[in-house]
């Protein structure tokens, strides 16, 4: 029950975040192009201002999301594979998806992959 509705909500959130991230990247590139002496420190300032896009952007950077991760999560919703582990095809636990909407692996596989990669 309500699963499709949840997915639609998640998708909307992801698209919103993707848009905010995109807008900020474009905005940053704009200011880089028009002002000399603009560098990374100024982008940090932009991310810290009080506009809602900047707040979303900041949150996402804190969460480590990238445009690519967001785009892939949206693709997975569209293909109907969202919330399915790419490794073992088990459903990814709901609390994990809530914390990490773009997670591609269940916690067990993620841990194993990280252990192997370390
Ligand atoms: Zn798995």
Sum this structure up briefly.
The chain is mainly α and 118 residues long. It contains six helices and no strands.
What are the key terms here?
118 residues, mainly alpha, 2 domains, globular, binds zinc ion
Overall SS class = mainly alpha
Mean pLDDT: 76
Gyration radius from CA atoms, angstroms = 17 Å
Multimeric status of the protein = single chain
Please, how many helices?
6
The string of secondary-structure elements, in order, is HHHHHH
Low-confidence stretches: 34-41
Helix content: over 70%
Percent of residues in beta strands? under 5%
Taking the sheet with the most strands, its summary is: none
Question: What is the overall silhouette?
Answer: globular
- Ligand species: zinc ion
Number of domain units? 2
- Number of beta-strand segments: 0
Task: Give the end-to-end Cα distance, rounded to a whole number of Å.
Answer: 40 Å
Task: Explain this structure.
Helix 1 (3-34) crosses helix 3 and helix 1 runs antiparallel to helix 4 (67-79). It is built from six helices and no strands. The protein has two domains: 1-82, no CATH class; 84-118, no CATH class. It is globular, with a radius of gyration of 17 Å. With 118 residues, it is mainly α. The chain binds zinc ion (ZN). Zinc ion (ZN) binds next to helix 6. Residues 85, 87-88, 90, 105-106, 108-109 line the site of zinc ion (ZN).
Please outline the helices and strands.
Layout: H1 3-34, H2 40-48, H3 52-63, H4 67-79, H5 94-99, H6 107-117
Helix pairs in contact: 1-3, 1-4
